[in-house]
Amino acid sequence: MWRRIRNRARAIGRDVHALSLAARDPRTPWYAKAFALAIAAYALSPIDLIPDFIPVLGYLDEVILLPPLILLAIRLVPPEVMAEHRAAAARVRERPVSRAGAALIVAIWLLAAAALLWWLWPHAAR
């Protein structure tokens, strides 16, 4: 059961990436682009139908509303365009992840935070 849920979640993630690629494709109709943009805006917006800070209920709108809306957006994109962008999204997911690159980015952020603290410390002591 968990494997099936995990596989479905990965497929939805791939499809969302494919939708973002299809939204930039000139072969995609304007209404499909607009709908995909609206779904992405809702998913990323801090304003939800049910606020996320409410335990359990807060994520129900994402769990119940977003998957059917994503499926509707997929149906609005021409099938050949969606198939092409699904393949591109799958290729991106197969690329190896650079742990060294991630470590470098984290190190840069930590250095920036340390430099900011070092610069602010004398001003905060006053």
Number of strands: 0
Q: Kindly report the average pLDDT value.
A: 84
Point out poorly predicted stretches: none
Described by strand count, sense and barrel closure, the largest sheet is: none
**What is the percentage of strand-forming residues?**
under 5%
**Helix coverage percent:** over 70%
- With helices defined by DSSP (H or I, 4 residues minimum), what is the helix count? 6
Structural class: mainly alpha
Overall, the morphology is extended
Spatial gap, N to C terminus: 59 Å
Element order, helices and strands? Answer: HHHHHH
Overview of this structure, please?
75% of the residues lie in helices and 0% in strands. The chain folds into two domains: 2-95, no CATH class; 100-126. It has helices at 2-22, 30-44, 60-64, 66-76, 79-94, 99-124. The mean pLDDT is 84. The protein contains six helices and no strands. It has 126 residues and is mainly alpha-helical. It is a multi-pass membrane protein. Keywords: Membrane, Transmembrane, Transmembrane helix.
